[in-house]
Amino acid sequence: MTDHAHDLASVQEATERLLTAVAALDNAAGTRPSRLPGWTVGHVLAHLARNADALANVLDGRPMYTSAGARDADIERDAPRALDVQLDDLRESHAGFRARAAEPADWTRTVELRNGVTDTAARVPFRRWAEVELHHVDLGIGYELEDLPEEFTEREIDFLAERFGGHQEVPSTGLRSDSGRVWTTGGGAPGGPVAVEGSAADLLGWLAGRRDGSALVVKGGALPALPPL
């Protein structure tokens, strides 16, 4: 069962790590390319701030974003800002999300995210935790997948294996980490079963579209091509 209070505390810790790391950058860092194609460091920071607002909207029963176009326009508008402005915005948007999450609520209720995706309210804090951790890595400022908390890495693999479970483009695939944890995913496409083994960081990187999977050991066929998240 999801412990939203635990996950909110983890969001706080992850956000503090992120803010400390970004505060150590020089002001020109915002214009440098991030690891996400077409996005600068400033784009990633702007997205993180607006995502906190958006998930507060979700908890409040409002649309996550007014539209896909508005979401993209807000990120483009905010990306060029000075680093101190980005930091202030991240702090304020995070505080707003925390304040909304601290209000008494039915955490078993169903909420709607983007593109008609639904989930329980209790899973929203974990979704925010994932945004902060993975986009911290995407900044390309020294925080790597190997630096992620072990609990987060394994739970995000759980989440992504579930997301690709039964997907019509992914054959039956078994995952095994160096620690012995196993997962299954795919199964909607012909072929398989394919066995994929490697470190938890490399498995997560492949599932999350952050690594090409070349460090993984694959048996029973080719490494499946995963659809974009």
Beginning-to-end CA distance, first to last residue: 24 Å
The helix-strand sequence is HHHHEEHHEEEHE
Q: What is the count of helical runs?
A: 7
- In the predicted model, the low-confidence regions spanning at least 5 consecutive residues are none
| Tally of strands | 6
Give a nutshell description of this structure.
With 229 residues, the protein is α+β, with helices and mostly antiparallel strands. The chain has helices spanning 4-23, 41-59, 68-78, 83-102, 124-138, 150-164, 200-207, and strands at residues 110-112, 118-120, 171-177, 182-185, 189-198, 217-219. Strand 1 and strand 2 form a beta hairpin.
Task: Give an overview in words.
By secondary structure, the protein is an alpha+beta fold. Helix content is 47%, strand content 13%. The protein is built from 7 helices and 6 strands, in the order ααααββααβββαβ. It has helices spanning 4-23, 41-59, 68-78, 83-102, 124-138, 150-164, 200-207, and strands spanning 110-112, 118-120, 171-177, 182-185, 189-198, 217-219. A hairpin with a 4-residue loop joins β3 and β4. α1 runs parallel beside α5 (124-138) and α6 packs across α7. The longest helix is centred in the N-terminal third of the chain and has 20 residues, at 4-23. It starts with a helix and ends in a 10-residue tail after the last strand.
